[in-house]
Amino acid sequence: MADNYLERHQLEYEERKKNWLRKKRHLPKQKKILERPDDEAL
Length: 42
Prior knowledge:
This protein is an all-alpha fold. The chain has one helix at residues 5-25. The protein has one helix and no strands.
């Protein structure tokens, strides 16, 4: 194996994880839509 193989992959993983978390945080939260029955007397 090449020198610093594990260290390089660890750094790449941490960079991808940081970008994924940053992207995930900026997504709008989806609101749950409550479905109501047509006839509320039921």
